[in-house]
Structure formats: C-alpha cells, structure tokens
C-alpha cells in the first residue's frame, strides 16, 4: 500500500450562522491505488475525520484498467453507508463511458453505486442542508476537448453556463470541477466553493500552489495545487491520491483533504469570507 497525508483547509462564510461548521472530505484521482496512512486505510481515515459529506472530484479509476473499478466501488460503497457521497466525473470516468469495450463495465459501476446511494452529478446540481445551511452541489463534466493534449481550448463563461446554468442565489454554491485549468472561469461563474483535482500536484511540487507540469504537458500550470481565494470565493485543488501515466511524485505527497466551512460574523477586509 502507498502512503498519503491528511490536509485540512478552513474557510469562513457569512452565509452560515456564527459557530456553525460543515466539513467535507475531498477525494480525487485515486486511479486504482491502494493507500494507507497513520490513521489507517483511506476509508478509516475519512471516517475518523467525521465529515458531513464526501465529495468525489473524479478520476477514481483508470479508463483502460477495468480492475480499477473494483477498488473505487468498494471504497465508495463503504463510505456511503455513513455519509452522503457526491461524485463528479473526471476525464477517466467520461472516457471509460465512451470506450466500446469498457462502456458496459463502467455503466454497471455507476448503476451499482447509485443504488447504494452515491449521487453522480453529470452537469447536474443537487441541494442538501447541513446544520441549518443549504448547500447546492454542481458536478461539472467537461467535453473531451477540454482535456486535449497539449493544448485544450479556453472555457468561456457562456460555455460553462450552457453546461451548468447560472448558480443559484440561495445557499452556499459548491462546484465540483475535475479540471482546475479553468479556475478563472469557475471564479467568474460564481461558486462560493470550487473543488478540483486532475493535476496530481504537478508531478513535482514546487511550493504551496505551484507544480512542474499538468497532464496536458503544460509547464508550471496555474491553479496547480493548494488553496486560491478571489473576492470572497474559494478554490481548493487536491494533489490527488494516486497517479497512473507518470507514476512519480517529488516533494508531492498523496493527500486526503478535509475542507471546513465555518460560520462567522462578517468583518471588513477578510479575503477568506464567502
């Protein structure tokens, strides 16, 4: 088993009552890797963190490895017994669903987990109340051209609105968007919280927010890893739990992330309030 670390980010929101706290566990880019930490296996570590929901940010599987479905299925089936699970597909899920030789297996995986209670969000949204606060979860599934190597196209705001609509004015808006390349568009779209993965921390992590290369082979990509904040909105990009094509991590540990959203009275000049 490979090791992973646990990382916690805390963000304040004036949309929540003072003293309230909601915690999400973020899972990204497992890619069929078996893991262990000082707090046990991955499901044990998630449960010890006592999240209100698990947010799956895509690429839990490898599109050409059918056996990777079993590990992801067992993990999510275990977690959904005790906590809501929201799942936005990544490029590997989308690709496996398109491949003629893999499509049937992938659809069976999704159908099975849906029956168990996992909520897949294919350019869809779903609302849920946690501790008296409404959260609206949007799962973005980008068309395949937005993962093109080496150069994928721009994502105009109008295209994102075509895919997801306009964010609701009610509650805290949470965008699950696998590909962080379009972080600027996500901020402009208006989600209070955006959670992404895909970049695997840039293979070699060069700092808190910087990595060497993206999966599209773009050097020093923006929104590579860590937390980003703009005009009271927040984006967290996971360095992921696994890897596949380039099985290397340099100064770049695999990570399970907990995101804590805390209620607080508004205060002037606080850039980390949603």
Question: How would you describe what is shown here?
Answer:
This protein has a single domain (2-263), classed as Purple Acid Phosphatase, chain A, domain 2 (4-Layer Sandwich). The protein has 6 helices and 15 strands. It has helices at residues 42-48, 68-80, 91-98, 103-116, 157-164, 183-189; strands at 2-3, 5-13, 21-27, 35-37, 40-41, 53-56, 85-87, 119-120, 124-130, 133-140, 172-177, 193-196, 226-230, 233-237, 255-263. The strands form 3 sheets. It has a 6-stranded mixed beta sheet with strand order 2-15-3-6-7-8, with helices on one face. Helix 2 packs parallel to helix 4. The mean pLDDT is 94.
Give keywords.
alpha/beta; 274 residues; single chain; six-stranded mixed beta sheet; 15 strands; Purple Acid Phosphatase, chain A, domain 2
Strand order of the largest sheet: 2-15-3-6-7-8
What is the subunit organization of this protein?
single chain
Low-confidence stretches: none
Backbone shape: globular
